[in-house]
Amino acid sequence: MSQLDFHFINRIRQQTKKLANRTALRYHENGSWQDITWSDFQSQLDQLSAALLAHPIQVQEKIGIFANNMPRWTIADIAALQIRAVSVPIYATNTAKQVAYILNDADIKILFVGDQEQYDQVITIVEQCPQLEKIVAMKSSIQLGEHPLACHWQDFLSVDSTTQQVEFEQRLQQKQLTDLFTLIYTSGTTGEPKGVMLDYANLAHQLKAHDQTLQPIDHNDISLSFLPFSHIFERAWVAYVLHRGAINCYLESTDHVREALSEIRPTLMCAVPRFYEKIYNAIWDKVNQASPIRRQLFKWALKVGEQHFNTPRPSWLLRKQYALANKLVLAKLRHLLGGRIRMMPCGGAKLEPSIGLFFHSIGINIKLGYGMTETTATVSCWEDKGFNLNSIGTIMPNVEVKIGENNEILVRGNLVMRGYYKKPEETAQAFTQDGFLKTGDAGELDAQGHLHITDRIKELMKTSNGKYIAPQYIEGKIGRDKFIEQIAIVADAKKYVSALIVPCFASLEEYAKQLNIKYHDRLELIKHSEIIKLFEKRINHLQQELASFEQIKKFTLLPHAFTVKMEEITPTLKLRRKVIMQRYRRQIDAMYS
């Protein structure tokens, strides 16, 4: 295949010809799963492309998508790409202020909104966005309130598409790999968001690299999407799924993942480390409550699974033991994820090695990867065999990685962004003189070519004793506990490490019930002496591997979670430490008084 064959729009149209009557997309509606065939998918794409041309949207002009996952998200995205427009995703959880910034900075002319909540937010800021010409409600249930810029999806489509056919064909013929396909706004932990410019050459590079790296995927595979498309991880993965002709299934809410796993029984699914942590903790909770015989059986089966995973050529005896362990225990554990998972890409943060080993031992092929929006997702990922569980994988094909000043991971290759939209100074600062992207992550490459990450360079904290603390590393160690939902380390210019902790209240309230602890509200619960003792015990156990200067000496339990709305976390769930430190100054001061 030539490089232009890997142009994403060419891949969609090629798969439509090849798989016309097969399922492309699947979604849940009115209590059951509905299918959209490739031919119907292409028809909807072409119809919306014609409507966008009629508006008119010019080459490389911007449309926005402010919605949760749904087939129309993908349809709006690719319909815009077919006419060489640029689609700009906006997190469904963004505040009105954040939405207004992106609409204006990206010069968005048409905005697609997914639910009433998003529509209502846009209406409050629409007068601040003079370039916005149309708001398209993706669901007929959205109440428009007769706003002059607003219309429903079907009304937007009601144009004479025949008059746009010549222009449509010209746009298809004139498409280039140098065209931008998206602007993705990185929700920085400091400062205003920056629009990452990604072009079709970036995406083509990743399609080709994943073909070379992953096990073959085809129309028999089913991928379940529940991570937000506004993030590069799920968006690039869905592009790859469609490129391979597999079925993509949509979940608007993460509340229904468990049911979807049993109903869809996917073969592929992206997830973040927190997803695996919760499953891991839930399984061990059940095991610890089981009878001694069942506990021993579980531990034996897990040990056999681990030996089988770690042995390149298992002996006859080990193969027989594994077959028995699989029948009695391991297959039942895989059934929790539907029973057909072949591969699970994992990204967004580092996965605790013991949890990675657990899932591979039970037969779940987790592909932990490292990447960022600026690299169109994957820079490195775990191989099928022989990878280092402590690493973030080996480097993807045709990518250069080296370690620069302050142990910073530097990346160069066709996967790297064009730059930041309208920000030439920030773009220049993001690259070294020889064209390597500065990732902002500290790490190292070992002798076997495995990439290791230690922390975000900008987030290193220095205690008043002169010791450097890597907060994300500590948060990763402690935060995987089933009783902890969120954790923010405090150490900068302090004499010891402390922490603000948001408990996982579902687990905590169940624990309080078992101990018959009486309380009126969450604030009273987290002040109870038995609860404080519980957290002290669990934190001390989890931080045994940490150096004494890294260990948490004091902590404060918080009754409410850090939220995007309060600007304490970004939409990708990264901590905005400056905001948190200011907002919880009283609690922090109390830990050092």
From TrEMBL:
Keyword Nucleotide-binding included in the entry's annotation: yes
Domain AMP-dependent synthetase/ligase: 13-421
Name the record gives this protein: Long-chain fatty acid--CoA ligase
GO cellular component, one term: membrane
GO function term, MF aspect, one: ATP binding
InterPro entries per record: AMP-binding_CS (IPR020845), AMP-dep_synth/lig_dom (IPR000873), ANL_N_sf (IPR042099)
Keywords annotated in UniProt: ATP-binding, Ligase, Nucleotide-binding
